[in-house]
Amino acid sequence: RRNLSWTTDGKNDPIMQVTNEGEKSISLTLRLLIGDSSYRYPTQVEIPAGENRFIRIQEVLGRISEKYPEVKNATSGSLQIEFEGVDSDVKTQTVNLNPKAGIVSNTEQARSPSITAVEPNSGNPGGGTVVTLEGQNFDDSTAVKFGGLSALRNRQSDDTIIAVAPPHSPGVVDIEVSNGKKTARLSKAFRYEFDPPLITKLDPDTGPSRGGTKVIIQGKNFQPGATVRWNDAVIPSRFQSPESISILSSAGKTGSVTVVVTNPDGKNVSLPDAFNYKGVPEVRSVSPKMGPTAGGYTVTVTGNNFQQGSSVLFGTQYGQTTFINPTVLAAIAPAGESGVVDITVSNPDGEMNVLPNAFIYNEPPRISNILAAPNPIVRNTVSTITVQASDPEVGPLQYEYRVAQGPPGCTVQGQGEEAIFHSGNVLGTAIVQVTVYDEYDAKAQGTITIVID
User: Fold this and answer.
1) Which of 110, 188, 261, 345 is the 20 to 30 A CA-CA neighbour of 155?
2) 57: pLDDT strictly greater than 80
3) Domain 2-107 adopts which CATH fold?
4) Residues 40/57, Cβ–Cβ less than 8 Å
């Protein structure tokens, strides 16, 4: 009976299954016959009784060619299998050794491939686009080239190959598939082009209307030489990477800005409302407009475009400031010297506005004494009122007199520190009010009671 049987399978990488049908172990000797030369496989293959061995013909040829380099130049030959056993015999498997066609059985012929579809048909010049090729007669040896450049590929089936486009300069290229000597080419099958730019955000996305804010445009697919349009004007920009471009914001009006990035290949992206100019603060009024030099009281500042973090200066001194809303700030007046100061509001973005001569540090005048002589007086007579007053700022004072309460016919007339009270013809008690004003209209008030007998 036969001690050995085998079958082969695989088109480009044949695998020989050898079965020992005998009852004893056998040893196989493998030889490659090329012309009159014989090249022996370095080791014998042992097969126990009743077992199988799988022999990859490519592996056998590879080991032989390592020992005998001249085998690599051969184009044809036979693989001979000799075994020792009860029934000695020699079995021979012929193979094709054409290195361009791969190793296939001499009974098989390479078939011509074809390409019918490419998806996607475009990709980035940097390479890496995964492309599906549809066609016919693809096998494990099928090579793929994009514009003459070899591509990594993975055969999915006889009619599908997945390839990775290699890096290539921009433009349209052919795709070529090859099964050894059989080649197919699909003209103008793939376009290398840069992806359009994309803006994801600006950092920061707000700034003062005076401009000068350093802004990073973040996104992807930016190219060296890309230009930036800020609303309607192209502004200087610096390419940092495919993900970022730096700029300085130009001056503008309160409101939003549309940013457009255009790559040298003409592709562009527009982002509306990408940046917002914050308005310049406007100080309209303060209340009160005057206060003591010691400070510590609240002054309300009204205007427009105030921000969280806005600050108020009284002259050159900061007052503790509370943001109420974009039109109102509350500031605690700091201590200051007598006189008029500007009120300045500064926003966190650096914008500021000044209301000149808006606040007065001033101590009101003081009345130290009010005298009336004579007092009491009789009807239809007069009494002289004398006022002792002073101004802490040593400024000029003005005096005002009036009869706050008293019998009919009582009057008072005065200018400066003295006034004349007329009693009239009715008995009773009169109260004269004295008001003293300084140059800033700060005032002090007092009264004197005059008895009419």
Assistant:
1) 188
2) no
3) Immunoglobulin-like (2.60.40)
4) no
